[in-house]
Structures are given as C-alpha cells and as structure tokens.
C-alpha cells in the first residue's frame, strides 16, 4: 500500500470514534428528540403521534412567550454590553499600560468561572438584605435602593449585569489579539496626521476587528440561547416570570412536570434558534472566503 494512502487510512480509522459519537450521540439524540416532540410523551416516551399539538401548546403558553421575550432582551443587551466593554478594555490594555499582564488576568478571570458561581456571587451582591444595598445603607445613606434581583422590572437587567461582568473578558482577549496584529505604520501615519487616539480606535482599528468581534459575538449569542444556570443561581426565573428563559422552561417541564413531549418541542425550537444564530455568520464567512469573481 502506498505510504500516503496508508496514512490516510490510519487517520480515518483514528477518527471513527469521533464520527460515531457525532452521528449517534449528537445527531441521533437530536433526531430522537424531534420525533418525541410530535408525540404525547409524558413521563415516558410514547409512539402516539399528535402532529404539531405540542408546538401549539408551547406557543399558547404565556410562560414560554415570556421566556422568549426575556432571552431576547437578555441576549441583545448581553452581547452588545460584552462587545462594547470588551473592546474598551482591549483598547485600554493596548496602550501598553503598566502591569498589563496582571490586568489582563484580572479582566479574564471571571470568564473562567461557571455561570453558577457568577450567579451566586451577584445574587449575594444584589440581595437587598445583606448585599450592596445593605452595605451602603449601613454607611448612613438610608434612601439608597439597589434591589434589582428582587424587582420584577429590573431583574432581567441584573442578569445582564452579571453576564457582561463574566463575558467581557473573552471579547477583550480576542479584540486585544486583533489589535496587536495591526501594523504599527498605521498608528504612526495617524499620529503624524494629528488624529486623536479615540478616533484612531473608532475609525481605523475597529473596522479591522470586524471578523474577530463577529466571531466573539457568535460565541456569546450561542451561549445566550442555552442560558440556564445563571438564571437558576440568581433568580430561579423570578420574580414571577420576569427572568424565565427557554432552557429553564424546558428543564422544568422535563424533570418537574414530566412533560417530555412539550419539553422536546421547546428543545427543538432552541435548536432552530442555534441554527438561526450560526447560519448568518457561516454564510458571511463563506462569502468572505469565496474567490473573487465566483458565481
């Protein structure tokens, strides 16, 4: 056997477990879940097909509609906040400040923590009984109010605050790497022309970071769709349904209400959401990499 073919055969054999896992574990369970969403399965799987009845029930649920609205608000503010704060942190560190390595570690450290830990930290900080509000009031400012985590109108913004605190470090690292890859001649030319530093970052540096920030945004958006643990740790979906999210709705119906059909219907909608979030980015990357002049 030719050495090259032998190497290719060895590589194919080595990848067989990965292909098996991808086809059986991921694609197989996905197809099985979609199938169950068209049945009347409750505690155990059923073969009694009911068409789109579970989806009709899903979208007639006020709690599911509220969860979609909440995840949309959270997602837009979370991704935008992470991108904006991450870019600002990267721009600050790009100025080669003292102790840059220490600051970079500090800013990135929250991203290394799980959302459960982040949620518990911010749940304690925003708790009006012994958190920031209680600490400020103990200093004499009795009228100070910072009760977002128990306020129906502000609870979703408390989640955004905690999420941005954790996710901005990822954007900072990606943006900083992109900034360090930009040629120094551009800086010299801009400084000779007397362009202010902030204008250089906004008009020259930021446009060149488009692909890097788009990749970071896609990663953050995919995380938004499956948001669950930070909600459970901070608010458990409350007050009321003000912080209910689709993933929590699915888990509650799967384990709490033993409604397997409704839960898998919600999971199928989430899968479609992931595809909707990834498809535009993949298409943009395909168009970017396509040879010029190609049809």
TrEMBL record:
Transmembrane domains' residue ranges: 12-34, 71-93, 105-125, 154-179, 200-225, 260-281
Cell compartment(s), UniProt: Cell membrane
Keywords, in A-Z order: Cell membrane, Membrane, Transmembrane, Transmembrane helix, Transport
Pfam families associated with the record: BPD_transp_1
Gene3D superfamilies per record: MetI-like
Ranges of residues in domain ABC transmembrane type-1: 68-281
Claim: Chloroplast is one of the keywords in the record: no
InterPro entries linked: ABC_transporter_permease, MetI-like, MetI-like_sf
Membrane topology designation: Multi-pass membrane protein
Database matches in PROSITE patterns: ABC_TM1 (PS50928)
Keyword field contains Transmembrane helix: yes
Classification via PANTHER family: ABC TRANSPORTER PERMEASE PROTEIN (PTHR30193:SF42)
Family classification: Belongs to the binding-protein-dependent transport system permease family.
Name of the protein in its database record: Glucose/mannose transport system permease protein
